[in-house]
Amino acid sequence: MNGPNGFNGRDFSTGNPGLDFVITFLQGRVQRVRSGELDRGASAVEWVIISAVVVAIVGAVAAIINAALDKGATKVGECIEGADAGSTC
Q: What's the pLDDT at 13?
């Protein structure tokens, strides 16, 4: 069965279409595992995790900058409201 027309060959037939399908399906899965094609999925997951971490860091930095700008803008607004000709902030 392992010759040129056996289970390892491309042209085989057990006489049962369902069994032929299962054998072909399993051979495809084995070839996929051996080829390293599954590494692409792991790489995609790694990129998603890295992207999520970067987005979280950018969000945290943006929140810190926003808080600092808000505090500075409040100071300037209060200074403008209380300003007269002779005083400085």
A: 75
Task: Please say whether the beta carbons of 28 and 8 come within 8 A.
Answer: no
Q: Three-class SS string for the chain?
A: CCCCCCCCCCCCCCCCHHHHHHHHHHHHHHHHHHHCCCHHHHHHHHHHHHHHHHHHHHHHHHHHHHHHHHHHHHHHHHHHHCCCCCCCC
- Prediction pTM value: 0.47
Cα–Cα distance for residue pair 69/63, rounded to 1 Å: 10
Per-domain residue ranges for the chain? 1-37, 40-89
